[in-house]
Specification:
Elements: H1 3-9, H2 12-23, H3 43-46, H4 48-65, H5 104-109, H6 116-136, H7 140-168, H8 191-209, H9 214-220, H10 223-236, H11 240-248, H12 255-258, H13 267-292, H14 296-302, H15 307-310, H16 315-337, H17 341-361, H18 367-407
Helix pairs in contact: 6-7, 6-13, 6-18, 7-8, 7-10, 10-11, 11-13, 13-16, 13-18, 16-17, 17-18
Pathway: Secondary metabolite biosynthesis; terpenoid biosynthesis; Cofactor biosynthesis; ubiquinone biosynthesis
Cofactor: Mg(2+)
EC number: 2.5.1.39
């Protein structure tokens, strides 16, 4: 029997009582409803009361069982909005803006607008040339000509190394904010075209290498293996900077055969070349560790390994140790070649002072600061070493000329 039928079978007084009690429920409105009044009415009007009661009860139950959603709070004007996606814009200033638009991706691929890497590759060649010059008694004109030839080779080979690196990293670069707009990553250059471009660069590098004495070819060729393996090292070890150091420092041995000093028959030259090579490896790891701090967060997300990730909390201590190793090995190379005070005071002392100042001042949490010290470190520290080596070479060269004149 339904609730309506049971209610209709009750006497009028009980129906009224039942209706009156129902109206006192908390879910009823405070104002009495005319249909639910407790005053007895004719039977014809009483039929609508239970129906209204049931309808109201059902509606009220549904209304009270639904949890009201909290009011939407408007976003504060201070809430930061997500950063807009990076969009590539062609260069409008600088060297790249002067090139035809079809050349720009290839110029970006070899980092033509960011020459710091070229200088870092060139400086070990310059160091070894200046260190070998007193041993070979080469005139300044010869030293200058080979130094310029090394510079042109550094430009070509650094570009080839960047192309090979971007080919390896074409699936990783899009996940790193600093590299996501590189030409291969943004698909401005296809991997096949980049591979052809690499071959052209290697042929150009070979043409420059053939301008040196033949022995230089045999000393320089093994470095190509390191150029190829460096991008792979980022995937298997936290110390790819060490592999980069082995690659970028290779020129520390080439200045000796370029000036006619045979490393295999001259033990002093071989010792000096080995110590200079080790010094440059330590220097490369040092500055590239600072460089790697720019991408430390993105590298962690992308699964790229680096020494900056491995030793993030003790970076300054590691940098200090590398600086000590670099200066000590550089001094050892000077001792092996019989360098004078100008080298030790200017070159070694200058390197120690500039590296100490950089390590103290660099803010490893600032991408801008890391980039500034990476770009200018080649001029600050590399310039000090070059000046010390150059001054020592010129002093010794002209001193020997005076002795020859006196003897004659």
């Amino acid at each position: 029997m339904s609730a309506c039928q049971r209610l209709l079978r009750l006497p009028a007084s009980r129906r009224a009582f039942s209706t009156t009690r129902t109206t006192t429920k908390p879910w009823l409105p405070s104002q009495p409803c005319s249909r639910l009044s407790s005053t007895p009415r004719p039977f014809s009007l009483q039929l609508s009361s239970p129906r209204s009661l049931i309808a109201y009860h059902t509606t009220s139950k549904l209304r009270t069982s639904t949890t009201p959603s909290p009011p939407t709070t408007p976003l504060s004007s201070t809430t930061p909005s997500p950063p807009p996606p990076q969009i590539y814009t062609p260069p409008t200033t600088g060297l790249l803006s002067l090139l035809p638009s079809s050349w720009v991706p290839y110029a970006e691929l070899i980092r033509l607008d960011k020459p710091a890497g070229t200088y870092y590759l060139y400086l070990p060649c310059l160091f070894s040339t200046l260190l070998a010059a007193p041993l070979s008694h080469s005139p300044p004109s010869t030293v200058l000509s080979y130094s310029l030839l090394f510079l042109s080779g550094a430009i070509i080979m650094r570009g080839a190394g960047c192309t090979i690196n971007d080919l390896w990293d074409r699936n990783l670069d899009p996940h790193v904010s600093r590299t996501r707009l590189r030409p291969i990553a943004r698909r401005a250059i296809t991997p096949f075209n980049a591979l052809l471009f690499t071959g052209a660069q290697l042929l150009a590098g070979l043409a420059i290498l053939l301008q040196f004495p033949t022995s230089c070819f045999f000393y320089a060729t093994p470095s190509l293996l390191l150029v190829t393996l460096y991008p792979l090292a980022k995937r298997v070890t936290y110390y790819p900077q060490f592999v980069l150091g082995l690659t970028f420092s290779w020129g520390a041995m080439l200045g000796f055969p370029a000036l006619g000093v045979d490393l295999l028959s001259n033990s002093a030259a071989l010792t000096a070349a080995g110590l200079l090579y080790g010094s440059n490896v330590a220097w490369t790891v040092l500055y590239d560790m600072i460089y790697a701090h720019q991408d430390i967060k993105d590298d962690a997300k992308a699964g790229i390994k680096s020494i900056a990730l491995k030793h993030d909390k003790e970076t300054k201590q590691v940098l200090t140790g590398l600086a000590v190793v670099q200066v000590a090995l550089l001094a050892g190379a000077g001792v092996a070649t019989g360098a004078g005070p100008a080298f030790f005071i200017g070159g070694c002392g200058g390197a120690a002072a500039t590296l100490g100042f950089m390590i103290k001042r660099v803010n490893l949490k600032s991408v801008k600061d890391c980039w500034w010290w990476f770009v200018n470190g080649c001029w600050i520290t590399g310039g000090a070493i070059s000046l010390g080596l150059g001054a020592d070479y010129l002093i010794r060269y002209y001193s020997e000329d005076e002795k020859v004149v006196e003897e004659q």
